[in-house]
Design brief:
It contains 15 helices and nine strands. With 497 residues, the chain is α+β, with helices and mostly antiparallel strands. The mean pLDDT is 97. Bound molecules: flavin-adenine dinucleotide (FAD). Flavin-adenine dinucleotide (FAD) binds next to strand 1 and helix 11.
Protein backbone atom coordinates (compact mmCIF):
# COMPACT_ATOMS: atom_id res chain seq x y z
CA UNK A 1 0.00 0.00 0.00
CA UNK A 2 1.37 3.46 -0.85
CA UNK A 3 0.15 6.99 -0.25
CA UNK A 4 -2.08 8.34 -3.08
CA UNK A 5 0.06 11.48 -3.61
CA UNK A 6 3.36 10.59 -5.34
CA UNK A 7 6.35 11.58 -3.21
CA UNK A 8 8.04 13.72 -5.88
CA UNK A 9 4.91 15.93 -6.10
CA UNK A 10 4.75 16.20 -2.31
CA UNK A 11 8.45 17.09 -2.07
CA UNK A 12 8.33 19.63 -4.92
CA UNK A 13 5.43 21.42 -3.28
CA UNK A 14 7.24 21.43 0.09
CA UNK A 15 10.47 22.69 -1.46
CA UNK A 16 8.75 25.53 -3.35
CA UNK A 17 6.77 26.53 -0.27
CA UNK A 18 9.92 26.68 1.90
CA UNK A 19 11.76 28.68 -0.73
CA UNK A 20 8.90 31.19 -1.18
CA UNK A 21 8.30 31.48 2.51
CA UNK A 22 11.96 31.88 3.57
CA UNK A 23 13.24 33.93 0.64
CA UNK A 24 10.29 35.75 -0.95
CA UNK A 25 7.40 36.48 1.42
CA UNK A 26 9.75 36.42 4.40
CA UNK A 27 13.43 37.25 4.09
CA UNK A 28 15.26 34.98 6.51
CA UNK A 29 18.51 36.96 6.18
CA UNK A 30 16.75 40.13 7.36
CA UNK A 31 14.90 38.24 10.09
CA UNK A 32 18.12 36.65 11.33
CA UNK A 33 18.51 38.91 14.37
CA UNK A 34 15.10 38.00 15.78
CA UNK A 35 14.21 34.94 17.76
CA UNK A 36 11.29 32.86 16.49
CA UNK A 37 9.62 33.31 13.10
CA UNK A 38 6.73 35.42 11.81
CA UNK A 39 3.72 33.09 12.28
CA UNK A 40 2.84 33.07 8.56
CA UNK A 41 6.16 31.42 7.64
CA UNK A 42 5.72 28.39 9.82
CA UNK A 43 2.00 28.24 8.99
CA UNK A 44 2.74 28.06 5.28
CA UNK A 45 5.40 25.38 5.71
CA UNK A 46 3.32 23.31 8.12
CA UNK A 47 0.29 23.55 5.81
CA UNK A 48 2.22 21.12 3.53
CA UNK A 49 1.88 18.56 6.33
CA UNK A 50 5.61 17.72 6.26
CA UNK A 51 5.42 15.59 9.39
CA UNK A 52 2.98 13.19 7.69
CA UNK A 53 6.10 11.45 6.32
CA UNK A 54 6.63 9.99 9.81
CA UNK A 55 3.11 8.70 10.33
CA UNK A 56 2.16 5.12 9.37
CA UNK A 57 -0.27 4.70 6.44
CA UNK A 58 -2.94 3.12 8.64
CA UNK A 59 -3.09 6.37 10.66
CA UNK A 60 -3.37 8.55 7.54
CA UNK A 61 0.32 9.40 7.09
CA UNK A 62 2.76 8.73 4.25
CA UNK A 63 4.08 5.52 5.81
CA UNK A 64 7.23 6.48 7.80
CA UNK A 65 9.59 5.63 4.94
CA UNK A 66 13.15 6.61 5.80
CA UNK A 67 14.07 7.77 2.28
CA UNK A 68 11.10 10.18 2.24
CA UNK A 69 11.96 11.47 5.73
CA UNK A 70 15.60 12.12 4.79
CA UNK A 71 14.70 13.80 1.49
CA UNK A 72 12.29 16.10 3.33
CA UNK A 73 14.84 17.03 6.04
CA UNK A 74 17.37 17.79 3.33
CA UNK A 75 14.97 20.02 1.36
CA UNK A 76 14.24 21.95 4.58
CA UNK A 77 17.89 22.42 5.58
CA UNK A 78 18.75 23.88 2.17
CA UNK A 79 16.58 26.85 3.24
CA UNK A 80 17.07 26.79 7.00
CA UNK A 81 18.94 24.46 9.34
CA UNK A 82 16.64 25.50 12.19
CA UNK A 83 13.58 24.50 10.17
CA UNK A 84 15.15 21.14 9.37
CA UNK A 85 16.07 20.54 13.01
CA UNK A 86 12.52 21.45 14.05
CA UNK A 87 11.21 18.77 11.68
CA UNK A 88 14.01 16.39 12.72
CA UNK A 89 13.12 16.70 16.41
CA UNK A 90 9.45 16.00 15.67
CA UNK A 91 10.41 13.06 13.46
CA UNK A 92 13.17 11.06 15.08
CA UNK A 93 12.69 12.12 18.69
CA UNK A 94 8.92 12.02 18.88
CA UNK A 95 6.78 10.57 16.05
CA UNK A 96 9.00 7.61 15.14
CA UNK A 97 9.35 6.33 18.74
CA UNK A 98 5.59 6.75 19.14
CA UNK A 99 4.93 4.84 15.89
CA UNK A 100 7.21 2.02 17.05
CA UNK A 101 6.50 1.80 20.78
CA UNK A 102 3.21 3.65 21.42
CA UNK A 103 -0.14 2.10 22.37
CA UNK A 104 -2.97 2.30 19.81
CA UNK A 105 -4.77 4.85 22.01
CA UNK A 106 -1.76 7.19 22.10
CA UNK A 107 -1.03 6.77 18.40
CA UNK A 108 -4.64 7.47 17.41
CA UNK A 109 -4.87 10.67 19.40
CA UNK A 110 -1.42 12.07 18.69
CA UNK A 111 -1.20 11.24 14.97
CA UNK A 112 -4.63 12.80 14.39
CA UNK A 113 -3.58 16.00 16.16
CA UNK A 114 -0.39 16.16 14.02
CA UNK A 115 -2.25 15.57 10.76
CA UNK A 116 -5.28 17.77 11.45
CA UNK A 117 -3.93 20.52 13.69
CA UNK A 118 -0.20 20.59 12.81
CA UNK A 119 0.80 19.85 16.41
CA UNK A 120 4.46 19.42 17.39
CA UNK A 121 6.41 17.17 19.77
CA UNK A 122 9.90 16.99 21.28
CA UNK A 123 11.99 14.87 23.62
CA UNK A 124 13.25 15.72 27.10
CA UNK A 125 16.23 13.73 28.31
CA UNK A 126 18.85 16.26 29.44
CA UNK A 127 18.87 17.66 33.00
CA UNK A 128 21.01 20.41 34.53
CA UNK A 129 23.09 17.84 36.45
CA UNK A 130 22.98 15.07 33.84
CA UNK A 131 23.77 15.60 30.15
CA UNK A 132 26.25 13.09 28.76
CA UNK A 133 25.53 10.71 31.66
CA UNK A 134 21.81 10.73 30.92
CA UNK A 135 21.37 7.28 32.47
CA UNK A 136 21.81 8.91 35.89
CA UNK A 137 18.92 11.32 35.32
CA UNK A 138 17.05 12.30 38.49
CA UNK A 139 13.58 12.91 37.06
CA UNK A 140 11.38 10.26 38.67
CA UNK A 141 8.08 8.53 37.98
CA UNK A 142 5.75 6.49 40.13
CA UNK A 143 2.37 4.89 39.48
CA UNK A 144 -0.69 6.78 40.78
CA UNK A 145 -4.39 5.87 40.19
CA UNK A 146 -4.63 5.19 36.44
CA UNK A 147 -1.40 6.89 35.42
CA UNK A 148 2.12 7.99 36.35
CA UNK A 149 3.31 10.99 38.31
CA UNK A 150 6.51 12.43 36.78
CA UNK A 151 8.63 15.00 38.62
CA UNK A 152 11.97 16.65 37.89
CA UNK A 153 13.79 19.35 35.92
CA UNK A 154 14.75 19.12 32.23
CA UNK A 155 16.64 21.63 30.12
CA UNK A 156 17.80 22.26 26.54
CA UNK A 157 14.89 20.36 24.97
CA UNK A 158 14.32 21.74 21.45
CA UNK A 159 10.89 23.45 21.06
CA UNK A 160 10.70 24.37 24.77
CA UNK A 161 7.42 26.14 25.51
CA UNK A 162 6.28 25.55 21.95
CA UNK A 163 5.65 21.80 21.50
CA UNK A 164 2.16 20.43 22.16
CA UNK A 165 3.50 17.01 23.18
CA UNK A 166 6.64 15.87 24.98
CA UNK A 167 8.28 12.51 25.23
CA UNK A 168 9.42 12.61 28.86
CA UNK A 169 12.11 10.33 30.25
CA UNK A 170 12.35 9.36 33.92
CA UNK A 171 13.52 6.64 36.32
CA UNK A 172 11.11 4.78 38.56
CA UNK A 173 11.04 5.79 42.20
CA UNK A 174 11.42 2.45 43.97
CA UNK A 175 11.53 3.84 47.50
CA UNK A 176 11.85 7.35 48.94
CA UNK A 177 15.18 8.70 47.58
CA UNK A 178 15.92 5.58 45.49
CA UNK A 179 15.54 5.37 41.71
CA UNK A 180 15.57 2.25 39.52
CA UNK A 181 18.21 1.78 36.79
CA UNK A 182 15.88 1.58 33.78
CA UNK A 183 14.38 4.56 31.91
CA UNK A 184 10.65 5.02 31.28
CA UNK A 185 9.24 7.01 28.32
CA UNK A 186 5.95 8.90 28.64
CA UNK A 187 3.89 11.01 26.22
CA UNK A 188 2.84 14.25 27.88
CA UNK A 189 0.03 16.31 26.28
CA UNK A 190 0.58 19.84 27.58
CA UNK A 191 -2.96 20.89 26.59
CA UNK A 192 -4.31 18.73 29.44
CA UNK A 193 -4.77 20.24 32.89
CA UNK A 194 -2.56 17.83 34.84
CA UNK A 195 0.12 17.75 32.13
CA UNK A 196 1.14 21.37 31.89
CA UNK A 197 4.92 21.94 31.84
CA UNK A 198 6.20 25.18 33.31
CA UNK A 199 9.10 26.89 31.53
CA UNK A 200 11.19 28.45 34.31
CA UNK A 201 13.62 30.19 31.97
CA UNK A 202 14.15 30.66 28.22
CA UNK A 203 17.79 30.43 27.12
CA UNK A 204 19.72 32.89 24.95
CA UNK A 205 20.89 30.11 22.58
CA UNK A 206 23.86 31.22 20.49
CA UNK A 207 22.42 30.09 17.16
CA UNK A 208 19.29 28.35 15.83
CA UNK A 209 17.34 31.50 16.77
CA UNK A 210 14.10 30.06 15.43
CA UNK A 211 14.08 27.25 18.02
CA UNK A 212 13.26 28.01 21.67
CA UNK A 213 15.32 26.34 24.41
CA UNK A 214 15.06 26.65 28.18
CA UNK A 215 14.63 25.00 31.56
CA UNK A 216 11.41 23.18 32.43
CA UNK A 217 9.92 22.11 35.73
CA UNK A 218 8.14 18.78 35.35
CA UNK A 219 5.30 17.88 37.70
CA UNK A 220 2.72 16.08 35.59
CA UNK A 221 0.35 13.14 35.70
CA UNK A 222 0.31 11.13 32.48
CA UNK A 223 -2.35 8.46 31.70
CA UNK A 224 -1.22 4.84 31.87
CA UNK A 225 -1.81 4.22 28.15
CA UNK A 226 0.55 7.09 27.28
CA UNK A 227 3.64 5.20 28.43
CA UNK A 228 5.74 3.75 25.58
CA UNK A 229 5.97 -0.04 25.60
CA UNK A 230 9.60 -1.16 25.25
CA UNK A 231 10.21 -4.52 23.55
CA UNK A 232 12.60 -5.40 26.39
CA UNK A 233 14.13 -2.65 28.57
CA UNK A 234 13.70 1.11 28.43
CA UNK A 235 17.47 1.54 28.05
CA UNK A 236 17.37 -0.60 24.88
CA UNK A 237 14.45 1.51 23.63
CA UNK A 238 16.58 4.60 24.23
CA UNK A 239 19.53 3.12 22.31
CA UNK A 240 17.27 2.11 19.41
CA UNK A 241 15.74 5.63 19.38
CA UNK A 242 19.07 7.48 19.59
CA UNK A 243 20.81 5.30 17.00
CA UNK A 244 17.91 5.78 14.57
CA UNK A 245 18.01 9.52 15.17
CA UNK A 246 21.80 9.69 14.66
CA UNK A 247 21.43 7.78 11.37
CA UNK A 248 19.02 10.49 10.18
CA UNK A 249 21.44 13.39 10.80
CA UNK A 250 22.67 13.08 7.17
CA UNK A 251 19.23 14.26 6.00
CA UNK A 252 19.66 17.56 7.88
CA UNK A 253 23.35 17.71 6.93
CA UNK A 254 22.93 17.14 3.21
CA UNK A 255 20.73 20.15 2.42
CA UNK A 256 22.86 22.36 4.66
CA UNK A 257 26.17 21.32 3.06
CA UNK A 258 24.59 21.57 -0.41
CA UNK A 259 23.58 25.17 0.33
CA UNK A 260 27.06 26.05 1.69
CA UNK A 261 28.53 24.62 -1.51
CA UNK A 262 26.13 26.46 -3.85
CA UNK A 263 26.74 29.74 -2.01
CA UNK A 264 30.51 29.18 -2.24
CA UNK A 265 30.30 28.49 -5.98
CA UNK A 266 28.25 31.62 -6.65
CA UNK A 267 30.61 33.80 -4.61
CA UNK A 268 33.90 32.44 -5.93
CA UNK A 269 32.74 32.69 -9.55
CA UNK A 270 31.73 36.33 -9.07
CA UNK A 271 34.37 37.74 -6.74
CA UNK A 272 37.64 38.85 -8.31
CA UNK A 273 40.69 39.64 -6.14
CA UNK A 274 43.78 41.21 -7.75
CA UNK A 275 42.32 40.58 -11.18
CA UNK A 276 41.61 36.88 -10.66
CA UNK A 277 38.32 35.14 -9.96
CA UNK A 278 38.56 33.38 -6.60
CA UNK A 279 37.53 30.10 -8.22
CA UNK A 280 40.76 30.18 -10.27
CA UNK A 281 42.93 30.04 -7.13
CA UNK A 282 44.33 26.68 -6.14
CA UNK A 283 43.49 26.88 -2.43
CA UNK A 284 39.92 27.90 -3.31
CA UNK A 285 39.69 24.88 -5.63
CA UNK A 286 40.85 22.74 -2.71
CA UNK A 287 38.13 24.16 -0.44
CA UNK A 288 35.42 23.83 -3.08
CA UNK A 289 36.31 20.26 -3.92
CA UNK A 290 36.37 19.43 -0.20
CA UNK A 291 32.89 20.92 0.19
CA UNK A 292 31.68 18.96 -2.82
CA UNK A 293 33.15 15.81 -1.35
CA UNK A 294 31.24 16.47 1.91
CA UNK A 295 28.09 16.69 -0.23
CA UNK A 296 28.88 13.26 -1.72
CA UNK A 297 29.58 11.75 1.71
CA UNK A 298 26.30 13.06 3.17
CA UNK A 299 24.48 11.72 0.07
CA UNK A 300 26.07 8.28 0.57
CA UNK A 301 25.05 8.29 4.23
CA UNK A 302 21.45 9.18 3.28
CA UNK A 303 21.36 6.33 0.75
CA UNK A 304 22.66 3.90 3.38
CA UNK A 305 20.38 5.10 6.18
CA UNK A 306 17.34 4.90 3.95
CA UNK A 307 17.98 1.14 3.80
CA UNK A 308 19.11 0.54 7.37
CA UNK A 309 17.33 2.98 9.70
CA UNK A 310 13.60 2.24 9.28
CA UNK A 311 11.39 1.86 12.35
CA UNK A 312 11.04 -1.83 11.48
CA UNK A 313 14.77 -2.33 12.22
CA UNK A 314 16.17 -3.00 15.68
CA UNK A 315 19.08 -0.55 15.99
CA UNK A 316 19.91 -1.24 19.64
CA UNK A 317 23.37 -2.55 18.75
CA UNK A 318 24.06 -0.35 15.69
CA UNK A 319 26.43 1.88 17.64
CA UNK A 320 29.44 1.84 15.27
CA UNK A 321 27.40 2.82 12.22
CA UNK A 322 25.18 5.36 14.02
CA UNK A 323 28.01 7.01 15.95
CA UNK A 324 30.28 7.14 12.88
CA UNK A 325 27.60 8.79 10.78
CA UNK A 326 26.51 11.32 13.41
CA UNK A 327 29.94 12.45 14.55
CA UNK A 328 31.52 12.63 11.10
CA UNK A 329 28.64 14.31 9.28
CA UNK A 330 28.25 16.96 12.00
CA UNK A 331 32.00 17.70 11.80
CA UNK A 332 31.52 18.09 8.04
CA UNK A 333 28.62 20.52 8.59
CA UNK A 334 30.74 22.76 10.81
CA UNK A 335 33.69 22.50 8.42
CA UNK A 336 31.43 23.45 5.48
CA UNK A 337 30.19 26.61 7.22
CA UNK A 338 33.72 27.57 8.32
CA UNK A 339 35.04 27.05 4.80
CA UNK A 340 32.29 29.15 3.18
CA UNK A 341 32.99 32.00 5.62
CA UNK A 342 36.73 31.79 4.86
CA UNK A 343 36.10 32.03 1.11
CA UNK A 344 33.61 34.88 1.39
CA UNK A 345 35.65 36.87 3.89
CA UNK A 346 34.34 39.72 6.05
CA UNK A 347 30.99 39.89 4.28
CA UNK A 348 30.13 36.49 5.77
CA UNK A 349 30.92 37.53 9.34
CA UNK A 350 27.36 38.69 9.89
CA UNK A 351 24.22 37.18 11.30
CA UNK A 352 22.49 38.18 8.09
CA UNK A 353 24.84 35.96 6.04
CA UNK A 354 23.97 32.29 5.71
CA UNK A 355 27.63 31.29 6.19
CA UNK A 356 28.10 33.24 9.42
CA UNK A 357 24.82 31.89 10.76
CA UNK A 358 25.80 28.44 9.52
CA UNK A 359 28.75 28.38 11.93
CA UNK A 360 26.63 28.95 15.03
CA UNK A 361 23.63 27.00 13.78
CA UNK A 362 25.62 23.85 12.98
CA UNK A 363 27.90 23.98 16.05
CA UNK A 364 25.55 22.29 18.55
CA UNK A 365 25.07 19.32 16.23
CA UNK A 366 28.57 18.31 17.41
CA UNK A 367 27.32 18.41 21.02
CA UNK A 368 23.74 17.15 21.21
CA UNK A 369 22.65 13.52 20.97
CA UNK A 370 26.10 12.45 22.08
CA UNK A 371 29.06 14.82 22.20
CA UNK A 372 31.35 13.94 19.27
CA UNK A 373 34.43 13.41 21.49
CA UNK A 374 32.47 10.79 23.38
CA UNK A 375 31.03 9.14 20.28
CA UNK A 376 34.44 8.86 18.56
CA UNK A 377 35.84 7.15 21.67
CA UNK A 378 32.83 4.81 21.81
CA UNK A 379 33.36 3.76 18.17
CA UNK A 380 36.91 2.64 19.02
CA UNK A 381 35.81 0.94 22.22
CA UNK A 382 33.24 -1.11 20.29
CA UNK A 383 35.87 -2.00 17.67
CA UNK A 384 38.61 -3.00 20.13
CA UNK A 385 36.16 -5.02 22.25
CA UNK A 386 35.07 -7.02 19.20
CA UNK A 387 38.68 -7.52 18.12
CA UNK A 388 39.54 -8.88 21.55
CA UNK A 389 36.62 -11.28 21.54
CA UNK A 390 37.69 -12.54 18.09
CA UNK A 391 41.33 -12.70 19.29
CA UNK A 392 42.41 -10.38 16.46
CA UNK A 393 45.15 -7.78 16.93
CA UNK A 394 45.81 -6.72 13.33
CA UNK A 395 43.50 -3.87 12.33
CA UNK A 396 43.65 -4.67 8.62
CA UNK A 397 42.42 -8.23 9.24
CA UNK A 398 39.52 -6.96 11.30
CA UNK A 399 38.49 -4.25 8.81
CA UNK A 400 38.49 -6.83 6.03
CA UNK A 401 35.95 -9.03 7.77
CA UNK A 402 33.76 -6.27 9.29
CA UNK A 403 30.49 -5.82 7.34
CA UNK A 404 30.78 -2.01 7.55
CA UNK A 405 34.31 -1.80 6.11
CA UNK A 406 34.89 -4.75 3.73
CA UNK A 407 35.07 -2.76 0.49
CA UNK A 408 36.90 0.25 1.93
CA UNK A 409 39.50 -2.05 3.45
CA UNK A 410 40.18 -3.45 -0.05
CA UNK A 411 41.01 0.10 -1.08
CA UNK A 412 43.05 1.34 1.87
CA UNK A 413 43.62 -1.76 4.01
CA UNK A 414 47.40 -1.55 3.46
CA UNK A 415 47.45 1.53 5.75
CA UNK A 416 46.15 -0.58 8.63
CA UNK A 417 48.55 -3.47 8.62
CA UNK A 418 49.55 -3.03 12.27
CA UNK A 419 48.56 -4.45 15.63
CA UNK A 420 46.45 -2.33 17.97
CA UNK A 421 47.75 -1.91 21.51
CA UNK A 422 45.49 -3.61 24.00
CA UNK A 423 45.06 -0.46 26.13
CA UNK A 424 44.63 2.88 24.36
CA UNK A 425 44.37 6.23 26.14
CA UNK A 426 41.09 8.09 25.70
CA UNK A 427 42.66 10.64 23.32
CA UNK A 428 43.94 7.78 21.16
CA UNK A 429 40.49 6.19 21.22
CA UNK A 430 39.13 9.50 19.92
CA UNK A 431 41.83 9.67 17.18
CA UNK A 432 41.12 6.09 16.16
CA UNK A 433 37.34 6.67 16.24
CA UNK A 434 37.78 9.52 13.75
CA UNK A 435 39.72 7.20 11.45
CA UNK A 436 37.12 4.41 11.71
CA UNK A 437 34.22 6.81 11.08
CA UNK A 438 35.88 7.82 7.79
CA UNK A 439 36.49 4.19 6.75
CA UNK A 440 32.84 3.32 7.48
CA UNK A 441 31.78 6.37 5.44
CA UNK A 442 34.12 5.41 2.59
CA UNK A 443 32.27 2.08 2.34
CA UNK A 444 29.00 4.02 1.95
CA UNK A 445 30.53 6.19 -0.79
CA UNK A 446 31.75 3.09 -2.66
CA UNK A 447 28.23 1.60 -2.40
CA UNK A 448 26.72 4.84 -3.71
CA UNK A 449 29.10 4.72 -6.69
CA UNK A 450 28.16 1.11 -7.41
CA UNK A 451 24.51 2.16 -7.41
CA UNK A 452 25.00 4.65 -10.25
CA UNK A 453 25.87 8.00 -8.58
CA UNK A 454 28.07 10.11 -10.85
CA UNK A 455 31.58 8.74 -11.07
CA UNK A 456 33.64 11.94 -11.03
CA UNK A 457 32.08 13.02 -7.72
CA UNK A 458 32.65 9.56 -6.24
CA UNK A 459 36.30 9.45 -7.39
CA UNK A 460 37.06 12.93 -6.04
CA UNK A 461 35.36 12.10 -2.77
CA UNK A 462 37.33 8.86 -2.35
CA UNK A 463 40.56 10.79 -2.95
CA UNK A 464 39.64 13.34 -0.27
CA UNK A 465 38.63 10.60 2.14
CA UNK A 466 41.89 8.72 1.60
CA UNK A 467 43.90 11.90 2.32
CA UNK A 468 41.84 12.61 5.42
CA UNK A 469 42.29 9.05 6.68
CA UNK A 470 46.07 9.21 6.12
CA UNK A 471 46.32 12.52 8.00
CA UNK A 472 44.26 11.25 10.92
CA UNK A 473 46.19 8.01 11.01
CA UNK A 474 49.42 10.05 11.26
CA UNK A 475 47.94 11.81 14.30
CA UNK A 476 46.88 8.48 15.81
CA UNK A 477 50.44 7.13 15.53
CA UNK A 478 51.99 10.21 17.19
CA UNK A 479 52.93 9.67 20.82
CA UNK A 480 50.81 12.02 22.95
CA UNK A 481 50.58 12.03 26.70
CA UNK A 482 50.81 15.73 27.51
CA UNK A 483 48.52 16.66 30.39
CA UNK A 484 47.44 20.14 31.44
CA UNK A 485 49.52 21.97 34.07
CA UNK A 486 46.71 22.97 36.41
CA UNK A 487 48.72 25.09 38.84
CA UNK A 488 50.36 27.18 36.09
CA UNK A 489 50.33 30.76 37.42
CA UNK A 490 53.88 30.99 38.91
CA UNK A 491 56.73 31.86 36.55
CA UNK A 492 54.54 31.76 33.48
CA UNK A 493 54.51 35.43 32.31
CA UNK A 494 56.44 36.37 29.16
CA UNK A 495 56.94 40.05 30.10
CA UNK A 496 60.57 40.84 30.99
CA UNK A 497 61.91 37.49 29.76
C1 LIG B 1 21.16 23.34 20.65
C2 LIG B 1 20.96 22.18 21.57
C3 LIG B 1 19.86 21.37 21.40
C4 LIG B 1 19.59 20.32 22.28
N1 LIG B 1 18.45 19.58 22.14
C5 LIG B 1 18.11 18.68 23.10
C6 LIG B 1 16.83 18.03 23.10
O1 LIG B 1 16.01 18.24 22.19
N2 LIG B 1 16.52 17.18 24.12
C7 LIG B 1 17.39 16.92 25.13
O2 LIG B 1 17.05 16.15 26.02
N3 LIG B 1 18.61 17.52 25.17
C8 LIG B 1 18.99 18.39 24.19
N4 LIG B 1 20.20 19.04 24.24
C9 LIG B 1 21.13 18.73 25.31
C10 LIG B 1 22.31 17.91 24.82
O3 LIG B 1 21.91 16.62 24.46
C11 LIG B 1 23.38 17.93 25.92
O4 LIG B 1 23.92 19.25 25.92
C12 LIG B 1 24.48 16.91 25.68
O5 LIG B 1 24.00 15.62 25.94
C13 LIG B 1 25.71 17.17 26.57
O6 LIG B 1 25.35 17.34 27.88
P1 LIG B 1 25.87 18.63 28.71
O7 LIG B 1 25.63 19.83 27.89
O8 LIG B 1 25.28 18.55 30.06
O9 LIG B 1 27.43 18.44 28.77
P2 LIG B 1 28.29 17.52 29.77
O10 LIG B 1 27.67 16.19 29.95
O11 LIG B 1 28.61 18.33 30.97
O12 LIG B 1 29.60 17.36 28.90
C14 LIG B 1 30.36 18.52 28.48
C15 LIG B 1 31.47 18.09 27.57
O13 LIG B 1 32.34 17.25 28.30
C16 LIG B 1 32.93 16.31 27.44
N5 LIG B 1 32.63 14.94 27.91
C17 LIG B 1 31.59 14.53 28.67
N6 LIG B 1 31.66 13.21 28.87
C18 LIG B 1 32.76 12.78 28.24
C19 LIG B 1 33.39 11.51 28.09
N7 LIG B 1 32.90 10.41 28.63
N8 LIG B 1 34.52 11.46 27.37
C20 LIG B 1 35.06 12.56 26.78
N9 LIG B 1 34.51 13.78 26.88
C21 LIG B 1 33.40 13.89 27.61
C22 LIG B 1 32.34 16.53 26.05
O14 LIG B 1 33.20 17.38 25.31
C23 LIG B 1 31.05 17.26 26.36
O15 LIG B 1 30.62 18.07 25.26
C24 LIG B 1 20.50 20.07 23.34
C25 LIG B 1 21.64 20.86 23.48
C26 LIG B 1 21.88 21.90 22.61
C27 LIG B 1 23.10 22.76 22.79
Amino acid sequence: MTHPQPFDQFLDHFRTTCHDSYRRRGDIDKLSMQRGLPPFMLREVMACNPLSVNIPLEYGGRGAKTDEILALLSAASYESLALSLTLGINSALFLQPLAKYGTDEARNLVFRRFLEQQNMGGLMITEPGHGSDALNMQTSFRPVDDGFLIQGTKHWAGLTGWADFWLLTAREQIREGELGRDIGFFICDVSQAEQHIEVEEFFDNLGLYQIPYGRNRIDVKVPELFRLQPHSTGIKLMLDLLHRSRLQFPGMALGFIHRMFDEAMIHTRERAVAGKKLIELDQVQHRLSELQSSYTIASAMCATSSKTAGIDKDLTTASVQANSVKSYVTDLMQQAAQSLVQMVGAKAYRLSHIGGRGITDSRPFQIFEGSNDMLYAQISEAFTKQMKSLRLANLKDYLKQHHLTTKSSDRIGRLFDFDLKSELTQRKLVDLGKVISRIVSMEMVIDLGENGFRKDLIDNCLDHLTNDIMTLLGVFHLPAQVAVVEDYKDNSQWFGR
